[in-house]
Amino acid sequence: MSATQTTIITYLGTPIFGITLSILLFLFGQWLFKIGKGFFLFQPLFVGMVLGIFVLWLMAKAFGVNVTWFYTNAYKPGGDIIFWFLNPATIAFAVPLYKRNDIVKRFWLEILLSLIIGLFISLFVIYGVSKLLGLDNNGIASMLPQAATTAIAMPISGAIGGTPAITAMACILNAVLIYALATWLIKIFHLTEPIGQGLGLGTAGHTVGSAKALQLSSASGAMAAIAVVIISIVVDLVVPTFANFMGLIK
């Protein structure tokens, strides 16, 4: 190990660096989102992801070390702690699920069937588009779990031979696009019912889509949260089976 690498591990290889960098970039994203009056490209998660990659690349070049090595040894100790909080944050979606269990009890069959059918359609579309783009098995496996929220999609991606980091980027890009196009999509598909709005935004946009659904109505927000929970369970059960059927798991 070179003197530069030893110095990096000594001063930056603690959780403080990764945590501080993540929080600062997210706060910067919130500020941009506020002054940009909700412009979709300034969504804090998207800003944090893009700037985070750029900052880590810039710092790695400045220190003269490999970017992957810098990420693993300087950022990851703190980044893993930030990532840990995704799990309880995802579980928190069970709260609106509990509060609006009356809707779930009334329409449970319609909700479940629509999410399962929609997931199967999306899996075949993702697989077909990935093949057309010439992605290898790793790339396809990285794309398949993106219907679930990031905290669920990443472990599934790793289990079926994908790259969790690529899956996370796909999930966030999906969420940002859905946030930007939500109003237009609702008009195009005539989604006037809160149930349809919430299920669509929660499934495609995850937490960001749920935030958009909440702006429409409390019922839409609750249904979006319900969709995030249910689709994550369905993805966890269906995607590994689908990947195995398609020969992605060796």
Description:
The protein has 250 residues and is mainly α. It has 12 helices and no strands. It folds into 2 domains: 82 residues, no CATH class; 156 residues, no CATH class. Helices cover 82% and strands 0% of the residues. The two termini are 35 Å apart.
Order of helices and strands: HHHHHHHHHHHH
What's the mean pLDDT score?
A: 84
* Count of helical regions: 12
Q: Stretches where pLDDT falls below 50 for ≥5 residues?
A: none
Largest sheet: none
How many angstroms separate the termini? 35 Å
- Domain module tally: 2
Instruction: Give the strand tally.
Output: 0
Structural class of the helices, strands and pairings? Answer: mainly alpha
Quaternary class: single chain
Residues in helix, %: over 70%
Strand content: under 5%
Transmembrane segments: 12-33, 45-69, 81-98, 107-129, 165-186, 222-243
Subcellular location: Membrane
Main location: membrane
Membrane topology: Multi-pass membrane protein
